[in-house]
Structures are given as structure tokens and as C-alpha cells.
Write a structure and sequence with these properties.
The complex is a heterodimer.
Chain A lengths: L3 E4 L2 E5 L4 E7 L3 E9 L5 E7 L2 E5 L2 E6 L4 E6 L8 E9 L7 E2 L3 E6 L1
Parallel strand pairs in A: 2-11
Antiparallel strand pairs in A: 1-3, 3-8, 4-5, 4-9, 6-7, 7-8, 9-10, 9-11
Chain B lengths: L3 E4 L2 E4 L5 E7 L6 E7 L6 E7 L5 E2 L8 E7 L2 E6 L8 E8 L10 E3 L3 E5 L1
Parallel strand pairs in B: 2-11
Antiparallel strand pairs in B: 1-3, 3-8, 4-5, 4-9, 5-6, 7-8, 9-10, 9-11
The chains are: A mainly beta, B mainly beta.
Chain lengths: ~110, ~120
Amino acid sequence: KNEVEQSPQNLTAQEGEFITINCSYSVGISALHWLQQHPGGGIVSLFMLSSGKKKHGRLIATINIQEKHSSLHITASHPRDSAVYICAVRFRSGNEKLTFGTGTRLTIIP
Amino acid sequence: GAVVSQHPSWVICKSGTSVKIECRSLDFQATTMFWYRQFPKQSLMLMATSNEGSKATYEQGVEKDKFLINHASLTLSTLTVTSAHPEDSSFYICSAREAGGAFSAYEQYFGPGTRLTVT
């Protein structure tokens, strides 16, 4: 069964802390997306990964294909990073469809 | 990066009326567009997949006659909610995918969403 699990569901941290959000999936994938959704709803695509590691500003995403696991890291977290972070996976057997994790609600306290 | 726009960003309509939501890819050609629905504090639910020039493929449980999707060009897809009812109130998000081209192949870009309230 094609499943995506994220952890933690909720995360509260102090400004400046290093943040890690995890995503695990059940079977082989062709791509994994990390998405950010702010209150108000708009979704921003942060990364698309199929292997290795990507970095953009204070955000880093890694993926381990063998372990079927990806992490999203935020360095020097800031209150504006407060949002829901969603892992979405395109399974090889799933045609073009994305399967979404339940999201991690991140709150950064000043 | 690629940009996907949606219009309107929010809409309030009366029960029984129809509402059209537009999704445009602004700087790339979207061979495939996806329509999602999101209820409060829940994840995105795929409603349908549309390919330019062909009929949309609807997910199980989504009424084709109620949610009309038209992908008439490589930059525009529309979702029309017909005879809207209060239970159709939701956040509707479109996403577009470009195969090849200037941006990463098979990257999927999301629109900002449309909040529909049916009174």
C-alpha cells in the first residue's frame, strides 16, 4: 500500500533553533516534494527530490532512497517559518498522482 | 521558478448557483493540471487530473457532473462547481505540471488556492 508518514505532527520551537521534520514512505518513488502551507492556505513548493540533498537559503532537504526516508531541515528558525510543512510523494506505481503526508504544523516562538 | 495563479482567490456564492475557478500557468506550458480540495486541518484530496485537450480523469467519489473541469489550453484549466451547496464550501487548489522545458521535468507547481463559501 502506498503510504506517507510524517513526524512530528506538531512542533513548537524557539526562534533560532534547528528544526527537523521527517517523512517516511512505504514503497519505491520517482519523486518527493516538500511543500509549505501558511495560514490562509497558499501552498509553496519548497523542494522536489529524487536523490541526495538540496539546499535553498536556510532550508535543506535530504532523501535516503534505500531507507525510504526524507528530512526537511530549517536552520536558524524564525517566526515567519511558522507554517504547515507537507511531504508529498509520487510513487512509481501511482501514475502521476501525489500522495500527501498529514503535514507537520511548525510554530516558532520569538 | 514557475508560477501558477488562481482566480478568484476567494468567492462567496448562494446555494444553487455555479462558480468557476480558473487556474493558469503563467510562464510554462502545463500538459497536466490537478485539482485538489482541502478541508480545514486536513490534507489535500485529489479531485481530478486533466490533460490538455482531453477529458479529465476524476477520482473515485468525485461527481463529474458537479465538478466540471475544462483544460482547454496548455496554460488554462477551469473548475466549475455547479449547483453549489454549503457542503461544497472548501479550499480548492490547482497544481500544474510541465513535462520537460525550462524548469525541472515533472516538477509540480501549486496555485495559491481559492476559498469557496456557499451560503
